[in-house]
Amino acid sequence: MNAITKTEAARPSLIDSMAAQRNMDPAQFAKTVRATVMPAQHTNEQFAALMLVADKYDLDPILKEIYAFPAKGGGIVPIVSIDGWVNLINSHPQYDGVEFDFEHGDDGVLVSCTCRMYRKDRSRPVTVTEYLSECIRNTEPWKMKHRMLRHKTMIQAARYAFGFAGIYDEDEGAKIAEMREINPVDRKPPAPPKPPEAEHKPAPATIDHVADSIDADSEDEPTAEDMAEDQAEVIDDTTFFEQLEEALAVAGDLETLEEVWTEFDPMARFDGQKGGEINQGIAMAIRKRAEKRIGGA
Q1: How far is CA 22 from CA 12, 59, 65, 169, in A?
Q2: Measured between alpha carbons, how far is residue 201 from residues 23, 79, 221, 237 in Å?
Q3: Rounded to whole angstroms, what are the CA distances from 204 to 38, 120, 234, 262?
Q4: Which of 108, 241, 242, 272 is most buried, by CB atoms within 10 Å?
Q5: pLDDT at position 176
Q6: pLDDT one-digit tens code per residue, 11-30
Q7: What single DSSP character describes residue 168?
Q8: Is 231 exposed, middle or buried, given 0-12, 13-18 or 19+ CB atoms closer than 10 A?
Q9: pLDDT exceeds 60 at position 184
Q10: What are the C-alpha distances in Å from 188 to residues 41, 48, 192, 246?
Q11: Given this model, what pLDDT does residue 10 score?
Q12: Which of 234, 260, 263 is nearest to 247 (CA)?
């Protein structure tokens, strides 16, 4: 037992390991990363969260392949630069090439870009088309319309082809940072599940509208499916994500997790909405964290 304890205690930390890969002193590595890719005001937990994402995807913060964007109200959004996305794609063992096609109008103005991304284990490519009118922003980089639209299309194709989740390009990150704080490290832990004897106590404030909609004379209580469906119609996206994360946080196994996911059905909720793909990506990132906690990822 003592030998095992000593071995575990001697295991290098994530910062030690990342610093060693670059032949840097751990303290100097952390100081450099904090000064170059983190917002001026950030917590140790936010720094650790970004390093975990960088380690998971093998992205180099020193080379600015990944950096933190400050979110509205606090927190951070992990941003991957175009160099980082190229690294992710080319490093994937199943990557088998990519092709691009541009479409122009009769007046020669750029309309769209289509990306075909190939995997070695699939007979057909993943094909994604992005339209300039939906992507363009009034920023300096977007003066190079063809290049920026090509980047945008490649990133979206990579998501579909390889399932990259929880990371964003700069345009997406700026939009998400305005919507909500997605970094979970500053949130209070979710409340534990209610014991059986508390089953008939009043519902939490976030679902009061569900209770109000029930006929007072009805003997049937609403099912979890009914509450999730009613919530989806009236709550805003931020509250939806918070409730999804809280529900998944108390799932003890993959079967329960799947039941919660099916009840909330975030893919259907955001399908066809403006910015729906981004919200679906946020939901998938929340699910993956829950799967990792359970041990099924």
Answers
A1: 15, 12, 15, 25
A2: 58, 43, 12, 26
A3: 36, 49, 15, 21
A4: 241
A5: 75
A6: 678 889 898 988 999 999 99
A7: B
A8: buried
A9: no
A10: 20, 17, 12, 10
A11: 54
A12: 260
Both structure tokens of 286: 């929340």
Q: Dihedral angle at the C-alpha atoms of 89, 290, 18, 16, nearest 10 degrees?
A: -170
Q: Model pTM?
A: 0.56
Q: Give the span between the Cα atoms of 63 and 40, in whole angstroms.
A: 19
CA distance 162 to 88: 10
Angstrom distance (rounded) from CA 291 to CA 257: 8
- Give the start-to-end residue ranges of the domains of the chain: 30-80+169-187, 85-166, 190-212+222-294
Task: Say if CB 240 and CB 266 are below 8 A apart.
Answer: yes
Q: How far apart are CA 247 and CA 260, in angstroms?
A: 7
**Chain-centroid distance, C-alpha 52:** 13
Task: Give the per-residue pLDDT at 99.
Answer: 97
Which residues lie closer than 8 Å to 181 by C-beta, 6 or more apart?
Answer: 71, 72, 73, 74, 75
Quick one: 38 exposed, middle or buried, by C-beta within 10 A (0-12, 13-18, 19+)? buried
Q: Is residue 266 exposed (0-12), middle (13-18) or buried (19+ Cβ within 10 Å)?
A: buried
